[in-house]
Amino acid sequence: RISKQTPGFSGADLSNLVNEAAILAARRKNKHISYDEFAESIDRVSFGPARRSRIVTAKEKELTAYHEAGHALVGHLLPHADPVEKVTIISRGAMGGYTKTLPEDDRHMLTVNEFMDKMAMAMGGRVAEETTFGTKEVTTGASNDLEQATSMARTMVTRYGMSEKLGPRTFGKREELVFLGREISEQRDYSDEVAETIDDE
For residues 8, 51, 104 and 121, what is the CA-based torsion angle, rounded to 10 degrees? Predict the structure, then answer.
């Protein structure tokens, strides 16, 4: 369970994770490090320490709770979404709360169904806010979710050929500085008409 939650962690990250877990266990006067300490440490290393001192109004807590419950509920109900591992409204870094999923298997490819369920789950928080509080009470809490869903949709259409209208081809040539691991530009290799169809898709 721990390794599933730490893909891409370097040796230093894993060392930091174990150290944080040991400190937490000692603070709790435990003689052994349990999964609870490791789970908390993963969140600390990934998102920063819990900001329990941050003053949050009762209204904000309620909005955050509904928002995160929306993500969790959609993730739980959709057949191609990763299982929900944790839901919290405790602030970490810039986040008011978060819903964490845990894939059942290592995978290197995604299907259209999996992309669709990931996008639906990303939008679940915003939809829960709208359904519960109305469109005039929607918050800025969904900005990162909107960014993720938009990026996934655009990638499906422009890089993975998953658009029925445009068919199996890519759009735009990406030039990258491989040694820096950073993308620098994207050359457009399609017409304005196709650009409009990409936006529609």
Answer: -110
- Distance, CA of 36 to CA of 47 (rounded, Å): 16
Q: Which residues are catalytic?
A: 68
Global pTM? 0.79
Residue 174 falls in which region: left (phi positive, over 0), alpha (psi -120 to 50) or beta? beta
Token pair of 95, please? 């986040």
Rounded to whole angstroms, what are the CA distances from 86 to 5, 10, 48, 69?
11, 23, 16, 11
pLDDT, tens only, 10-55: 899 899 999 999 999 999 999 999 999 998 898 888 877 777 777 7
3, 6, 125, 135 from 20: Cα distances, Å: 16, 14, 30, 42
Do 51 and 91 touch, CB atoms closer than 8 A? yes
Q: Assess contact for 121 and 71: CB atoms under 8 A.
A: yes
